Structure formats: C-alpha cells, structure tokens
Amino acid sequence: MPFEPALFLQASFWSDLSQLVSPAVGETLYMVIVSTILAYLIGLPLGVVLVVTSPGHILPNPWVERTLGTLINILRSAPFIILLVAFIPFTRALVGTSIGTTAAIVPLVISAAPFVARVVESSLKEVPYGVIEAALSMGASPLQIIQKVLLPEAKASLILGVAITTISVIGYTAMAGAVGGGGLGDLAIQYGYNRFRTDIMIVTVVILVVIVQGLQSLGTALARKLSH
Amino acid sequence: MIQIKQLVKKYSSRQETVIAIDDVSLHISKGAIFGIIGLSGAGKSTLVRCLNLLEKPTSGQIVIAGQNLTTLSGRALREARQKIGMIFQHFYLLQSRSVAENIAFPLEISGLSKKEIKLRVEELLHLVGLQDKADAYPSQLSGGQKQRVGIARALATQPEVLLCDEATSALDPQTTLSILNLLRDINQKLGLTIVMITHEMKVVKEICTHVAVIHQARIVENGPVESVFIQPQSDIAKEFIATVFPSELPSDLLKEFATHHDSEIIRIQFLGSRASDPIITDLLRTCEVRANILYGSIDHLRSTLFGTLTLELQGNSDQLNVAHRYLASRELKVEVIQRAL
Question: If contacts are CB pairs under 8 Å, which of residues 152-171 in chain A contact chain B?
C-alpha cells in the first residue's frame, strides 16, 4: 500500500473514535482511579508510619522505619514492566485472572503504593516539628497528633502529592497493554504505532495531555485553596 | 508549686556527652513569675522543656502541684501536661486552623463537648483581646497577635502553670511590652504560676518576681528579683543587670579620676521609697564632702522604683568615712568603684 501523507484522517476515523478511543478512555480512567485510591489506602498509612517512627519524632522506632524503608526502596527500584510480569501469579490468586484491565490494577497498586508512601512522607515532613511539640505539650496522644496535626497541616502538600501520583499512574497504565489491560497507552501502541494510525496516535496523546494538564491544574488550585 | 530536684540532662552521642543541665534544683512558688535567664546555649530551653517532659531528664525529679512528673508516662503524662500550658518563641500555631479553632485544639484533646468548647473559646478570645480575629488564620496575624493566640491556647485547659520559652524574643519591643502586660494581668487575675525562659534582662525587670541565672548548665544565681538586682553574686548576673541598668563609666574618665587626690567614685543603689528621698542634699548637709554626679538612672523593677547614682565624693579619708556611715544609716547599698587617696 502506497504511503499517503495527505490522507491524515482515514475513512474509519470517526467510527474508530467511538469504537476504539472512547472505551480506551474508560479503561484508562478506571485503572487510574481505582489504582490511585487503592495505592493511597496502602501508601498513606505507610507514609505516616515512616514519618512518626523516624528518629526524634513522636514514635521513634528505628527497626520499623528501616525495615519499611528498605521494602519500599526495593519495590520502587524494580521497573514497572518487571513488576507487571513478576506479580502475575499473585494477581491471578488475588483477582482470579492475570489478563485484563482489572488484572492490571494489581501491579499498578503494588508499584504506586510505595511511591505514595514516599510522597506522603515528604509532605508530612514539611510540618514543622515545633507544631507537633506544641501539641505534645498540650497532652495530645500520637493518634491525635496524626489526625489533628500532621495530616491537616500537610493537607495542601498532600493534595499536590495526589496529583503527582495520579499522573505517574497514568504513565504506568500505558504498559498495562502488556497484560491486555487496554487503555489509551495501549491503543497508542497497538494502532498508532504498530498500524501507522497517526490520527489515532495524535488523538490519544491529546487526550492524555488534557487529562494530565487538568489533573495538575485541579491539584494546584485545590492546594492553593486549602493553604491559609 | 514547682520543685526541680537535682535535675540532670545529658545528650550522648558516640563521640561525646554534652551536659545540658547539671544538677539543677529550684523551688518555684505558687503565683510567682519566675524568670530563668541565660545566654544562648546555657541550657535554659532544655530546662523548661524538662518541666513538661518534652525532654526526658537523665536524672532528677520534676514535681508540679505535688505530682512527680518524672515517674509518669503514656496517658498519665498526657493528662498531667494538660495542666501545664506552654507558649513558644515561634508560636507554633496550626496554620490550617483559624484562631478560634487553634484555641479549641487543646479542648478537643481533653475531650470537651462542642458546646463547652465554643463557650470557653469565647472567654479566651476575650481574655487575650482577639474577639474580632476569631475567624482569621495565623498567616493573617501579626507576631503579637499570634502570641496572644498562643497564650489563649495555652490557658484553654485552665492550667496552674504556664511555661514561656522565649515567648517575646521574636517580637518588637512595643509588642513585647504588651505581651508582658498581658502575662502579668493573667498572673494576677488567675493566680497562675509563670516560668519565663529568656535571654533578655528587660523581660525579667518588667514582670518577674523571682529570677534564676543559668550559666554553663548550672544555676549560678537565684532569688527575688529585687535582691538579685541589688546584690548580684555572679559576674554573669552583673553583666545581665548591666544590660538594663548600664552603670559602667568610660575607662578614660576613670583614668582621669584616678589622678585626683582625696576622692572616690561610689555607686549608690536604691529601691522603692528610698528612690524619692533627697539623699544627695542630706549627704552634703550632714557630711563635709563635695559630690560630683557622674551618672544616674531611675527605672521600674516590676512595679517598684530602682535607681542607681554614681558620684565622685571629694574629701579626706575621715570625711569620706563619715559619708559612708551616713549612707549606711540610710540603708542604701554603696559600692566603691575607685578610690584615689
């Protein structure tokens, strides 16, 4: 087939848009939202533990801090595509299958949770220790300090962390295609790259840019609104 | 109210051991405004932080209102801390909470109901004069206002003791005075015992009833403010007093006076009603000496007058002795700075 650069929009473009692109958008959003939520359910407490067990903090415990830190570093240093394959048996045991969008969520969470723990850790470390000490002097318990001081004081920074995490999860979902996870990244590779569908490629990239841009703006605006 | 018994605090690292508090014992009575003054690094901050166990003492005891804090931990310690308010140099307010919510914080910690909290916060806002700032956030307040919030927050749980860790050191002189006045009012109104850590003798002079001077981890001077100001024992205390009542004469002047004959330079200090007596006139009338006034000052020490007067007295040694006896009979503290006979 001769290459026709003039023909940018192929005849099937509009039907492809509804049949290929819109389900891919749905798959991406599903993977991103569910993985980010689950990653926070695991990562947020881990981040809190990392901070409060650090030396000189409210519950210093070098053993817990070091063990958890090492575990997080190991998971974070493994490339996502390796985690994706390495955790196939675990995924199958957990969700019954190792193929498909839901199956892709498992390695996404495993990869994002340690990232979240570190992002949360750095947000919470921004809270001046003097404020925590003031709460201690008023007789606050460690749990009260976490709930009433650490998390609320770091709120704006935590929100920015959610934006950063969500955006990097979007990046990881592009690799979910390797286990048949679908999504925009997969579509860009399957159609845009392998089948030379430049139009599909551009549309997926534009959609991704809009999602990322929108998330970042939303995060920034929320953070600004929350900081006094 | 507060008993500090043989308190020692050491910081150990692999290389060395630093002794921050070296065998300090103090008794602070109820209703006192007790100043603890020292240079930076003297150990004063560590000392006040030991009082509510923010720093765990290496050895010794802290007894507040009859309760030995050093034996407490966990819940019992947290409950004891609710009875000890603390304010800080950098205020340490919660940035994400409004003024009213900041004051409500310790009340939430102690488990009061929403309704009780609202009433108490109202009262406290009134006490510190911030009724119109209830809904403002700390970032919208001036330093003095922030410290007022800090004070209201520290008093929320009706403590018997208020610890002030350099509470006015980040404030300008005018604001410092207004905060000190507020603390004095509270002390009188509520009978609160206040412990003030500071490096400024001005603060001690303004409101303290008692003062202890800490130097190189030890208490070197301790007593009622008047007696420490009149009769300081340690060099460091003298230096601190000189920062608010400068009395050093220029050395050139002293050299010049040293060449005089039959003269001496004396410093007279007087307190309270003595400050309004016409001493000089009486001195010159009673004794056959001549006086040359070199320096004089009169100021408040808390609410009593405190003055110093530096004179050159001229006369032979007999006449000077008579003058000294006269001054002694008036119960004035006289110090001979230089004598040239």
Answer: 152-153, 155
Burial class (CB in 10 A: 0-12, 13-18, 19+), A103: buried
B178-202: b or e for each residue (b if 16 or more CB lie within 10 Å)?
ebbebbbebbeeeebbbbbbbbbbe
Taking a C-beta distance cutoff of 8 angstroms, is the pair A199, A15 a contact?
A: no
Question: What is the pTM (predicted TM-score) of this model?
Answer: 0.86
Task: Name beta bridge partners: B314.
Answer: B263, B290
d(CA A30, CA A37): 11
- Number of cross-chain residue pairs from A and B with Cβ atoms under 8 Å apart: 69
The pLDDT tens digits of the residues spanning B274-295 come to 767 788 888 888 888 999 988 8
d(C-alpha B243, C-alpha A199), whole Å:
80
Sheet of B2-12: strand order equals B17-28, B2-12, B59-64, B67-68
The reported pLDDT for the residue numbered A117 is: 98
d(Cα A15, Cα B195) in Å, to the nearest integer? 79
* C-alpha torsion sign, points B190, B193, B195, B200: positive
Residue A3 has pLDDT above 60, yes or no: no
Q: How high is the pLDDT of residue B269?
A: 86
Whether A135 and chain B come into contact, CB under 8 Å, resolves to yes
Q: How far apart are the C-alpha atoms of A124 and A52, rounded to whole Å? A: 9
Whether chain B has a CB inside 8 Å of the CB on A194: the answer is no
Burial category of B254 from C-beta neighbours within 10 Å (exposed 0-12, middle 13-18, buried 19 and up) = middle
Cβ distance A228 to B140 less than 8 Å, yes or no, reads yes
Q: B17-28 and B2-12: which strand pairing?
A: antiparallel
pLDDT in tens, A133-172: 999 999 999 999 999 999 999 999 999 999 999 999 998 8
Do residues B147 and B85 lie in contact, with contact meaning Cβ atoms separated by under 8 Å?
no
- Which long-range contacts link B274-278 to residues 24+ away (Cβ below 8 Å)? B274/B330, B274/B331, B274/B332, B275/B305, B275/B306, B275/B307, B276/B305, B277/B330
Question: What ipTM was predicted for this assembly?
Answer: 0.86
Q: What is the pLDDT of residues B109-168, one digit of tens each?
A: 999 999 999 999 999 999 999 999 999 999 999 999 999 999 999 999 999 999 999 999
